[in-house]
Amino acid sequence: MRTKLYVLYGGKSVEHEVSLKTAYTVIQSIDESKFEVFPIYITREGIWSVPETLNLGSLQPTDLIAKPNAAEIPESMGRILMNQLSLPGRKVVMPLLHGSNGEDGTVQGLLELLGIPYVGNNVLSSALTMDKAISKRLLAEAGIRQTDYLVYRYDQWLEDREQLLQEVEEDLGFPCYVKPASLGSSIGISRCMDKQQLAAGIVEAFKYDNKLVLEKEIKGREIQVAVMGNEKPLASLPGEFIHEHMFFDFDSKYLDKQLVMSIPAQISEELTTQIRKIAIQAYQLHGCCGLARVDCFLDDEGLLYVNEINALPGFTNQSMYPVMWERTDGTPYSALVERLIDYAFTRHAEKESILYTR
């Protein structure tokens, strides 16, 4: 009997479109002899819906977008839970919801309550990695090197803007970066060269979050490592994008057709070993499970800094995460998806054994 695979995608996050690309690639890769796929689309308004019957052999991205009536909002989730997720048989959920209301532990909490295995990070690790401010505190307490940073709330900005701007200039200097504390895909992030740009960047970032992280710029290269597994995670060979952008923003990541992946990154064997070790350390520090991508900076003096941990990294077949695994151990995209599903079942079984047999 085939395993029922429920794919959650879309969502209310500003990363809605990124989620659609991920879901399209994942669904196309599924081996229909092993899995029965149930796509579940969440609209920007939060309506849960099921697209019409899909033919995976001729699937188009627009086929994944259902158009429910707005009047269905109150009962849409409950209807999906009753009619789809309650079906008998072996089942697993793959949440492909980038950003808030999906990557932050909210959906994971729902799936925990339902007692259904799901791919990726659990409630705690999702929440920790999503909140850059809390994540940085964890890294600092563990003695893991990171760039100088400051954290501010919206009420602090309203209370004394000039003092905040002065603190940033004195403590971090320019250029510096302003980021919403809980968001991905470089949305809402600004590179600031002076106070005027800093003020504008803060205003922009507060459109997406009530808490911001401001960071001192590190001159060097951004190196990424893909990590997967539960108690004994594995780290891929490091990789990097070769580009000439001063700031790797949303358009650079998703629209620049001239980006070149360098996997493995052209660094020494010693640095390769070090960065893989640091990636696993950061992964375990946050209690990650299933998968995550750890992003680091390598400065001009050869020092490594951890930038952030992405609990649900870009996951199309052209994204850095799956390509790093393919070039590390030869795992093709479809096999990688199945490995992550296996990790989900293993974690769920171990949790059940603790609850009922120990």
Task: Report what the structure shows.
This protein is α+β, with helices and mostly antiparallel strands. It is 38% helix and 22% strand. It contains twelve helices and 14 strands. The strands form four sheets. The chain has a four-stranded mixed sheet with strand order 3-2-1-4, with helices on both faces. It has a four-stranded antiparallel sheet with strand order 5-8-6-7. The two termini are 30 Å apart.
How would you summarize what this structure contains?
The protein is of the alpha+beta class. It is 38% helix and 22% strand.
In DSSP terms (H or I, runs of 4 or more residues), the helix count works out at 12
Q: Could you describe the largest sheet, including whether it forms a barrel?
A: 4 strands, mixed
Helix content: 25-40%
Radius of gyration, CA atoms, in whole angstroms: 21 Å
Q: Would you tell me the overall average pLDDT?
A: 91
According to DSSP, the number of beta strands is 14
Order of helices and strands: EHEEHEHHHEHHEEHEEEEHEHEEHH
Walk across the major sheet and give the strand order.
3-2-1-4
Please mark out the parts with pLDDT under 50 across 5 or more consecutive residues, or reply none: none
State which percent range the strand residues make up: 15-25%
Structural class: alpha+beta
Morphology call: globular
N-to-C terminal Cα separation, in Å?
A: 30 Å
Keywords, separated by commas or semicolons:
single chain; four-stranded antiparallel β-sheet; 358 residues; 12 helices; globular; four-stranded mixed β-sheet; alpha+beta
